[in-house]
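Hi L.,

You mentioned the student needs an example of a multi-chain input paired with its predicted structure. This one should do, with 616 residues in total across all chains.
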Amino acid sequence: MRWIRVQLALLDFALSSLVRRKGRNLSLAAVFCLLVMCFASVVFAVKSLQREAASLLEGAPDIVVQRVVGGRHDLIPVQYLGLIKSLKGVQESTPRVWGYYYDPGSGANYTLMGTRCPDPSLEEGSVLVGSGVLRTFSGLEHGRIILRSAKGSFVSLKLKGTFPSDSELLSSDLVLICEKDLRELFDIPDHLATDIIARVANPAERRKVAEKIYEALPDTRPIQKEEILRTYEAIFEWRGGLTIVVLSALILSFLILAWDKAVSLGPEETQEIGVLKALGWDTSEVVRMKLMEGLLISITGFAVGIFLAYLHVFLLSAFLFEPLLKGWSVVYPRFPLIPAFGVHDLLVIFLLTVGPYSLATIVPHWRTATIEPQIAMRAQK
Amino acid sequence: MIKLAEVRKIFNQGRPNETVALRGINLEIQEAKLTVLKGPSGSGKTTLLSLIGCMTRPTSGRIWLCERELTSLPEKFLTTIRKETFGFVFQQFNLIGGISVLENVTLPAYTIGMPRKQRRERAMELLDRFSIANKAHVKVESLSGGEAQRVAIARALMNDPKVMIADEPTAQLDSALSKEFMAIMAQLKAEGKTILIASHDPLVWGSPCVDRVVEMRDGTILMLWDSALASGGGS
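Structure written out for the whole complex:
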């Protein structure tokens, strides 16, 4: 009971000290809050993008078989399909025709994916596009898209519609086109495809099937679904890491500020610690009071920072870091992010922000509190 | 009550700026008496007060408080003794700026676990005793010299210490306020407090309530004057 009363009294004094230097403390809390907001925004956005990509890739093919020539991706003969289909465990297998199209007008690359027509939503001479294409592609005219073919002629295709916004992370730059139209556009002969996809009913068999394909078709590279997922995760983690590196300048300058503020305790604060010690305050009581003061600033800054980061990422679509995090330098997707962070992420942000700040403030106060009160009190004299 | 034997204090020992502040002090401070340490600046008065008040340790020698040897005690015990036994009035009163008179007075009680309500009641009682209860919620910066002095005394009495220590308490005060300060000390002595004051102010060491004057110079005791001996014709 006595211990609790002492802690409450120390908290009482810490609060009174904060109010006493409110100008300085408010500005510190504001800078701290900004730091937490930036840091938490990156973490929140990366986590959401990873989950977004993972959920969309759930419907992705179990195995994608690419042909490799000289270590580079090449068109695959459609005749390989028969061998892949014959493997035990393969439920279904189809060739895909797709490619990239560079639009000099917008300076962006678009993904063109072929589909067998007639399709319920598409017929020959028409396309479905992602909203990023609609926003940026330079060759859109009167509901038609103009593309330059591999032979140099221009092909005009009708815009049939756009993809739903919930798939925008992966479909933003996508143009869905009939396979026949795409073969003509890219000049791909009928006996070749971009890759072959295979559906394997049992996930435990995927690895074995991939190994068998590699053995039977040594000029191919079978890519499993998990590998695609890992690549996406790595991309977003890398982007998040890059953003944090950029932010680290901010973090570092704040820590220098906190350290400087803390190390160079003014004569007034040094004398105050001397007085408290002379009046019977223990070194640990002075340190605890100062720790409470630091924690009140940093926890307030942390809570407000997390709240602002939530607003920034989930209501304002992380507009500050959007291009950097979502990729697609020109056609980056626009879609609302859905919260995917956990208590663990909040704990990491807390430890990486509140931890160093508390340490930066506590060490110098502890050093001053170990000086004899008589000497500390003379700081002002 | 307090006994010092061969106490020496050297600051910055072994460095070029080494200073010998006290050179083998032997002294006894009696309970419920008012003792004044008198001497010019640099004579070692403040250092001696700090040693007795457990704020610093001697370089050599021993100090006893009520038969308990203090010099070998760890820091934590010294702090406990400081907060329970001594009340301090510093040279410039050393009130903490930016907070109220009431908060300043309650400061020594923060770490003894006194409930907030009781803490404030006790402080108000003391402020009332020294006729400054009306200033309880005023910030200390706006106090006059006399008011600051009374707040400092109230703060020193917050934990009801056995010993009051005052370092040059009248240095910033005019004659009237200095006399008022000594009148308060006389009252406290009458209540059974042991009082130890360092001062070179004649209004302090010449005050009729003083029982003993210890004259110091260059870290040594030059002379001891005792009122009991003086009234009996000795010095």
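You could point out the following to them. The helical segments of chain B are 45-52, 75-85, 101-106, 116-129, 145-156, 175-190, 202-205, 227-231. Residues 43 and 92 of chain B are 19 Å apart (CA to CA).

Best wishes,
N.
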